[in-house]
């Protein structure tokens, strides 16, 4: 219950989380949102932890999404960087190591929060209400993994560590089977719909 213990257990949970993701080939990204706050007279806004930007929108002034353009488009219209006003469009100026910088046009004349739908990078759970990105029925496997790690540090508890590790591996196998079965059922549904469509198409051709 101490802060040090909670920090250690959180680190253990994230270690096991990454182990599960790499073992099952789960995505290391997730959908999220970001806020880009403008500064008066500054053409750029930045954020970190972004793998991809999907939509940038103005919820206060124009109350609509901003269109994405190229840097060339902005330079052709404002090579001197002198056009100011409420941003209408944006261009991605740089995007490296999951840090993204956007150039706005016109250059903001007020402090404003722009909301964005993003594909966020990283997998670590940092907040108390964060959850792993696999079905909740299998979240207990992370608990078994961390219990195995914690018991391994106590000499007399090492038999318990082995038991918890076995439970972790068993639940990991069950999750792998669940994901495979779910993917198979999804493909089967799609295939059947395609086949039905194909037969209808064939019948119409014959008629």
Biggest β-sheet description: 4 strands, antiparallel
Low-pLDDT stretches: 189-194, 198-207
SSE ordering: HEEEEEHEEEEEHH
CA gyration radius, whole angstroms: 25 Å
Residues in helices, as a percent range = 40-55%
Q: What is the β-strand count?
A: 10
Instruction: Indicate the structural class.
Output: alpha+beta
Average pLDDT level: 86
C-alpha termini separation: 74 Å
Can you count the helices?
A: 4
Proportion of beta-strand residues = 25-35%
The largest beta-sheet arranges its strands as 1-10-3-4
Quick structural gist:
The protein has 207 residues and is an alpha+beta fold. It has helices at residues 3-24, 71-77, 140-152, 158-206; strands at residues 30-37, 44-48, 50-58, 64-65, 67-68, 84-85, 89-96, 99-105, 107-108, 113-120.
Write up this protein.
The chain has 207 residues and is of the alpha+beta class. Helix content is 44%, strand content 26%. It is built from 4 helices and 10 strands, in the order H-E-E-E-E-E-H-E-E-E-E-E-H-H. It has helices spanning 3-24, 71-77, 140-152, 158-206, and strands at residues 30-37, 44-48, 50-58, 64-65, 67-68, 84-85, 89-96, 99-105, 107-108, 113-120. A 4-stranded antiparallel sheet has the order 1-10-3-4, with no helix packed on it. A hairpin with a 2-residue loop joins strand 7 and strand 8 (99-105). Helix 1 (3-24) packs across helix 3 and helix 3 packs antiparallel against helix 4. It starts with a helix and ends with a helix.
């Amino acid at each position: 219950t101490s802060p040090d213990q909670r920090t250690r257990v959180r680190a253990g949970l994230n270690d096991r989380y990454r182990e599960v993701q790499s073992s099952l080939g789960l995505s290391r990204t997730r959908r999220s949102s970001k806020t880009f706050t403008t500064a008066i007279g500054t053409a750029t806004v930045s954020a970190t932890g972004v793998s991809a930007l999907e939509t940038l929108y103005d919820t206060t002034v124009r109350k609509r999404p901003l269109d994405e353009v190229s840097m060339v488009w902005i330079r052709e219209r404002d090579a001197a960087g002198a056009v100011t006003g409420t941003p209408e469009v944006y261009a991605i100026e740089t995007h490296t190591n999951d840090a993204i910088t956007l150039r706005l046009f016109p250059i903001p004349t007020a402090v404003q929060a722009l909301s964005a739908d993003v594909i966020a990078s990283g997998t670590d759970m940092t907040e108390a209400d964060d959850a792993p990105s696999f079905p909740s029925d299998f979240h207990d496997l992370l608990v078994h993994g961390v219990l195995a790690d914690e018991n391994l540090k106590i000499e007399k508890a090492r038999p318990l560590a082995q038991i918890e590790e076995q439970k972790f591996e068993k639940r990991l196998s069950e999750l792998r089977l669940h994901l495979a079965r779910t993917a198979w059922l999804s493909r089967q549904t799609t295939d059947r719909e395609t086949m039905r469509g194909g037969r209808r198409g064939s019948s119409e051709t014959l008629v």
